[in-house]
Specification:
5-stranded mixed sheet; alpha+beta; 4 helices
Length: 110
Amino acid sequence: GRFCGGEYWHDPAFLDGLEQVRADMGAPLVITSGHRCAGWNAAVGGAPLSMHKQLAADIRLAGHDRFALLAAAERAGFTGFGLARSFLHIDRRARPARWFYPGSETEWTT
């Protein structure tokens, strides 16, 4: 509300994908970041071309096996994966992509 003037945006297919991941994991998902308007994205230090400005979600890893969560997101049709120490970024970009956030590579390669 502070930056976005009450703007709200969602995509039923994206939400269905999140529900599929939740069901696959058999546990709740804690979303730490979702869709952002341009003002909020700037305020939180988001990248200027962040997929959060379209639609993305960051899922807290606590309580989940990181590799099982990644596999569940892949099965649910997500194509963009940001691998961080404490969260998994997911989105549905046109061209698949996978990246490590700074300092997270060892968490995902062991």
